Amino acid sequence: MLFSKITIAAFIATVNAAPPVHLGLRNVTTASERLGLQWLGGNSSLPKILVLYTGGTIAGGSIYGALDDTQYGQLQITGEQIIARNPYLANHTQLAVSNWTSEDFSTGTDDGLVMNMTRFAHDALCSQDSDIDGAIYTHGTNSLEETAFLLDLLVNCGKPIVGVGAMRPWTHLSFDGDANFFQGVMLAANPDSRNRGVMVAFNNRIIPGFWVTKLHSTNPNAFGPTALGDLGAFVNNMPYFYNTPSQPIAKHEFDLQTVSNDPSFPALPKVDILYAARGFDGKLVLDAQSNGARGVVIAGTGNGGIPSGEDEIASALEKGLQVVVGTRSPFGPSTPSRRPTFAKSGFIHVIQSRIMLQLAIASGFDMNQTIALFEGGLRKAILQPWSPET
Ligand SMILES: *[C@@H]1O[C@H](CO)[C@@H](O)[C@H](O)[C@H]1NC(C)=O
Ligand SMILES: *[C@@H]1O[C@H](CO)[C@@H](O)[C@H](O)[C@H]1NC(C)=O
Ligand SMILES: *[C@@H]1O[C@H](CO)[C@@H](O)[C@H](O)[C@H]1NC(C)=O
Ligand SMILES: *[C@@H]1O[C@H](CO)[C@@H](O)[C@H](O)[C@H]1NC(C)=O
Ligand SMILES: *[C@@H]1O[C@H](CO)[C@@H](O)[C@H](O)[C@H]1NC(C)=O
Ligand SMILES: *[C@@H]1O[C@H](CO)[C@@H](O)[C@H](O)[C@H]1NC(C)=O
């Protein structure tokens, strides 16, 4: 017995270090085997759904009892425990957990960790040997939309990826995480979910990952799109799409390998968000740049206005900072200016614009290319030709 354990250990070590050596054991043939995924639950003819587990409220419990929904986080449950709570899962899918939790079980707030998870998801779902039908990621709700948008622009092989979370801890009178998790898995396993981009399953709603944002800080119906509507709903906890698949016009898919070659690897270029208001201090833009930012997104007033600070912005642009101006309004665009020196974000909101700017910089875009990226289609729509500095 001891001998066979050593043989297996040697085999695993060989697999990790190419080139492969054949020891009479069967070849590694699937992504699941290559990545060491353990399939739980359902029988082997059911869809395989990867569970990317990052922690957040869906993992959190409270020592203050069942009424607490603001002070929790002292207790944790694992992805495996969430799965074990729900006997219906195994009748519909096979599930394998992949942990991406940070040490404090808070959530994917670290660009490096989330990018590592993105590379893993891409490998698992999109490589030639993939035997996996879809994925869900569990996430803290505060940055659920950031990861949705990032995955949407980087992992595009048609397989469903669904974001889920919870607004209430599992110790609560009415934990919403079990239903959101189940619905997310059903959505990821549904063949009609293919080619729809990343989606978020929350509170019986199917929301497009490109447009989703957190609209309420504590209510279980916390998420909604800033443009477009929901894609569908859950009925008896099963997904029903009332729209055919479509993708946002403004969606630009980035190449994960190219982005990963940026010196910021394993993270992404530093991009800060500044919030404009009366008395906006343009020196903040220069400060961000001297603090290492390669880009800044400004949440502008109304349709992308900046009350003050033009000189500082111009000076930062000259020194190579990339600037995108969005809107601090919850809905509506920040439309292109006649003679752009920086980008206006269009209908892409500030939090999402930060990620798109990070990916643009990591892809080697200069300011003009970034302007074209954000403004291209919208500039045509408002009959303004691409005419920088003319
Ligand atoms: C394993 O893969 C190698 C190279 O792809 C092939 O030559 C060999 O026949 C395979 N072995 C088995 C048992 O499938
Ligand atoms: C496995 O699942 C399939 C699909 O739901 C079903 O048809 C089959 O009867 C199941 N097999 C077993 C052994 O439960
Ligand atoms: C799972 O499926 C089996 C066979 O159809 C059924 O007997 C069982 O009640 C189901 N379990 C749940 C939790 O629905
Ligand atoms: C994920 O992390 C939990 C908590 O540390 C652990 O119990 C579980 O075995 C891990 N799962 C995998 C697949 O590594
Ligand atoms: C991301 O992966 C790289 C190796 O590819 C590793 O060096 C780094 O520590 C990881 N970062 C995080 C935050 O997990
Ligand atoms: C952007 O385009 C304008 C007009 O074509 C040009 O003058 C300027 O040098 C370009 N800037 C960069 C950074 O390429």
From TrEMBL:
Check the record and name the PROSITE patterns matching this protein. Answer: ASN_GLN_ASE_1, ASN_GLN_ASE_3
Keyword terms of this UniProt record: Hydrolase, Signal
Catalysed reaction(s) here are: L-asparagine + H2O = L-aspartate + NH4(+)
Active-site residues are 57
Q: Name one Pfam family in it.
A: Asparaginase_C
Q: Specify the Asparaginase/glutaminase C-terminal domain's residue ranges.
A: 270-374
Q: Where is the signal peptide?
A: 1-17
Query: What is the E.C. number?
Result: 3.5.1.1
The Gene Ontology biological process terms listed for this entry are:
L-asparagine catabolic process
One annotated GO molecular function: asparaginase activity
Q: Which Gene3D superfamilies match?
A: 3.40.50.40, L-asparaginase, N-terminal domain
InterPro entries with a match to the protein in the record: AsnASE_II, Asp/glu_Ase-like_sf, Asparaginase/glutaminase-like, Asparaginase/glutaminase_AS1, Asparaginase_C, L-asparaginase_C, L-asparaginase_N, L-asparaginase_N_sf
User: What residues does the L-asparaginase N-terminal domain cover?
Assistant: 48-244
In the record, the note on similarity to other proteins reads:
Belongs to the asparaginase 1 family.
Show the PANTHER family listed in the entry. 60 KDA LYSOPHOSPHOLIPASE, L-ASPARAGINASE
Per its record, how is this protein called by name?
Answer: asparaginase
